[in-house]
Please model this.
Amino acid sequence: VERHKFLFPNHAIDWAGMVQTLGRAPYFAGGASLSQCIQNMLDAQQKIFPEYHVDWQQAVTKWALEDKSRAIDDEIQKFDDEAFKYMVIFSISNRLNSLSKLKWQKEILSDIDISEAFGCTKQKITEHTFSKLAHYELIDQLKEATSMLEIALWKASIDLSPSTDDDRGRERCRIRCGADVVVPNVLSFLRPSEFD
Model:
């Protein structure tokens, strides 16, 4: 890869195409697992071509749709199940790690891991995973927004109060700022419905 970069500095390598070719290989020989080979290739891409961005979520979604259309033809090679699950996890790894609750991260990983046992198609796996991840990201954003709203209400209460020079005065403003009423009412309009 380094030699290729040196010889052809302006040529873009089709990383998603290479992963797809490996993932759809009719058989895989060698000591390492297919997922390990894909991981080594992705590590090389991140190390040597860090500026080259690949939208892995889009690639995984495309592969899932292609496999759905290939389902009627047994002769056409589909994406390897374990390699596909690995790529789904890889495509969301940064977003997954940014979730505030470890419980949510484990739940999403568990859903990906057991989805095949329930007969889920690759398309269902990706749709469910991306939807659940977006749901939890929204909840995290709402938690951050409610904290900011509470601070803004407290600040407004301090600004309107004549005696807030000491800690007791500021604490009294925090208690009386109305956040316990305002925040739940605002949240009732913003909160997403529970995840199915």
